[in-house]
Specification:
Oligomer: single chain
Order of helices and strands: EHEEHEHEHEEEEEHEHEHHEHEHHHHHE
Number of helices: 14
Helix content: 40-55%
Shape: elongated
Bound molecules: adenosine-5'-triphosphate, magnesium ion
Structural class: alpha/beta
Amino acid sequence: MQFQAFLVKYAEIGVKGNNRGMFEDALLRQIRHALRPVEGKFQVLKTSGRIYVQAESAFDYEEAVGALKRVFGVSAVCPLKQVEDRGPEDLYRQVVSYMDQVYENKNLTFKVECRRARKNYPLHSQELNAKLGEVILDAFPEIRVDVHHPDVLLRVEIREKINLYSEEIPGPGGMPVGTNGKAMLLLSGGIDSPVAGYRIAKRGVKIDAVYFHAPPYTSERAKQKVVDLARLVARYSGPIALHVVNFTDVQLYIYDKCPHDQLTIIMRRYMMKIAEHIAKETDCLGLITGESIGQVASQTMQSLAVTNEVCTLPVYRPLIGMDKQEIVELSQEIGTFETSIQPFEDCCTIFVAKHPVTRPTLKSIQKSEARLDSHMEELVETAIATAERIWVE
Ligand code: ATP
Ligand code: MG
């Protein structure tokens, strides 16, 4: 059976009144965006509170379903057969033909559930349920009815046209990107931060990203890996403005002036400061990191507290209570893992001390930072001013 349309279902919790229009418009926009790279021509439309995707040419079914399954806000994707209303007799034939084409093996149980959204249809829903059940039973000797746990639940919706569907492919849930403001993701080349971005985008938040690059200590290839990761996250979040900050001079100056066991913490404080500055300039309402308590020395409770101290915007850490293995599984699920494990150096690892502090105090860190004079301010300003902006989609 070659389906020509999809019904897109979305969770309606919290989608009421004025919110509803905004929610649906964002969903339409994200669906169109997701379908853009898919082979085929599609129309995405909203009619009487439902969202339909109609193919207007031959199209790649697997790709289209794959794309729709990545759109946040979608609770299910239903491949749909739409037929014109030519009266009940014609509908009986269409329903039998649907069952015949979609289910090769008829050794199954089924149930018909009709919804008459158009009240002028000659039969009531209950009458239609009974009648359609009967014609299906008559057509296929092996098939049986099970009203409690059917293998196939065939839904028949009488609208302007008649919709037939029986498959609900689960979507990712969440809310359409663009319904909940924008945040700045600190995106490294690792496993964690792409997953963190995914998690926050899932709540409807648009994502921008910042990557701290330290040439020549980190290579062009390491930067390309981050661009590749941003592109993978963008498959869910929509386009990402990626800011690449040249962090080398800042790092070298810290290396020069501060105790080496505190390098990572001080460096991370500067990363947060710079990220926050760019975030505020670009209307982001928060920062996002891939931190998880206790994962490394810079992510102990003490280290997180000291890092967080420089921020005035909220810092969202969606992986904070997750184990590495859980994060790895999620990254495999969303398709970022393979890229994340490519072996390219990270700017944090290059300057990392053998025995970094794991219980820094704010006082001791501030004391070390006092050695960084006005020259540091200049370096930070230059880093911000020279950041490269890459549009990733
Ligand atoms: P990840 O797997 O995301 O790289 P990680 O386990 O390597 O995380 P850290 O290196 O301590 O942990 O980084 C913690 C968080 O800080 C990252 O999740 C990311 O949000 C941010 N971060 C680290 N390095 C960079 C970088 N070079 N550019 C941008 N953000 C970074
Ligand atoms: Mg990292």
